[in-house]
Amino acid sequence: ARNLGPAYRVTLRSRTGEAVTQPFDVGLAASIGRQANDESAFAVTRVDGLAAGQTLTVEIRLPANALNLGQNADGQPVPFGFLTAVADANQELPEADRTNDFMTLRRSGIVMVVQK
């Protein structure tokens, strides 16, 4: 009923000597293949900014459909195979190079952290 899927911690690090004073979105895309598409599960959180050289960790929870993006031959649900994290997901910040704004990982390669 609450549409809660798995939660992930995303770590951002400012590599510049300047602060980012404008808020921006950090997003996750969970997909079957390496590239996200219309059937992928998406989640976004807003960050207020980032100080020069700062490392910031945010928690983002995917919707429940991330665990059921398809079906296998037996009719069983197939969860996402890849997770892409994107800093400045809506490209609100002026940047000369966006190649370090995202990272895609296989779900099997993501370290699990259990909270008590």
Model description:
By secondary structure, the protein is mainly β. The protein has strands spanning 4-13, 24-31, 41-47, 55-63, 70-71, 77-78, 82-87, 102-106. It has a four-stranded antiparallel β-sheet with strand order 3-2-7-8, with no helix packed on it. The mean pLDDT is 90.
Question: What brief labels describe this structure?
Answer:
single chain; 116 residues; mainly beta; two-stranded antiparallel ribbon; four-stranded antiparallel beta sheet; elongated
Shape: elongated
Uncertain segments are none
Give me the side-by-side strand order of the main sheet: 3-2-7-8
Strand content: 35-45%
Run of helices and strands = EEEEEEEE
Class by alpha and beta content: mainly beta
Mean pLDDT equals 90
Give the helix tally: 0
What is the number of strand segments? Answer: 8
* Rg for CA atoms: 15 Å
The portion of residues assigned to helices is: under 10%
SSE topology:
Layout: E1 4-13, E2 24-31, E3 41-47, E4 55-63, E5 70-71, E6 77-78, E7 82-87, E8 102-106
Antiparallel strand pairs: 1-4, 2-3, 2-7, 5-6, 7-8
Please outline what is shown here.
This protein has strands at 4-13, 24-31, 41-47, 55-63, 70-71, 77-78, 82-87, 102-106.
